[in-house]
Amino acid sequence: MNIKINFALYAVIAFVLVCSCKNDKTDRHTDTVRSGVIQIGVDENFAPIIQQEIDVFEAKNQTAGIVPIYTTENEAINLLLKDSVRMIVTSHKLTKDQHKYLESKKMFAQEAKIATDAIALIVNKNNPDTLFTVSEIRKIMTGEITEWKAFRNNSILGKIKLVFDNEQSSTIRYAIDSICGGKPLYEGLYAQGSNQKVIEYVSSDLNAIGVIGVDWVGNDSDTTNLSFNNKVTVASLSNETVALKTNSYKPYQAYMALQYYPFLRDIYIIITDPRVGLATGFTSFICSDKGQRIILRAGIVPATQSLRVVNVRKNL
To answer: For 63, left (φ over 0), alpha (ψ -120 to 50), or beta?
Structure first.
């Protein structure tokens, strides 16, 4: 399957080239596209893949240092608005009001899509319930379904424990906006503080359902991207009225690319650097063939790389 080339990168580069000509001699930034040190804000959901990009970029450019601040999506955007960083990685573009605010400060944001990610649902390894419809997940999130016996009358499990990473995370925002249609989430949810803690919680609690970025449950030892973290079970989701093995999908890379898996979100780089500096260089690297191949190997969908679709139905 061919993914359309993301031309936003070229707009970013053109923008900073023009703006850099207007830069005066008092600019406090001394970094170049391949040297210097900068901080960037990164939604913690995307820490695994962005850390891989940083490691490879710094290995290629040994006089460059990218210092990531892994935080919530809201805090990453706030860092950009305060000019504490000039590059962030997030799951949605800035609002019109945020663009206007930056423009009032003579800062102009440019956005580039780098990948498509998925929201995964994870359950305990010993939980027999691993197939869900989108409607069922919506009802769990809004509190309409609170007991495991709603799925099987003879279930020995008790009350469903819905587990998220952080109350201010992009996962929470996605759940409210894209899954629940703007309805508030059930008050009884559990916020653990990080994606890693979500995995730990679900692996130790038979009643838990974890909501997590798929990048966090990948199997690093599987280069085919056809398996997940063995501490938990990644659930299969269906858009039909009844979830069956034949109509339900896990967030495998191919099913994400084909949009069979329902809970998808894009990943963006947003930069406000008015010059050709390290933020531009790092953005160019991530959008380059090498940077996109890192994303491809990580098991999510790159913005500019072609995918080979593999039949993974036997792995459901």
So the answer is: alpha
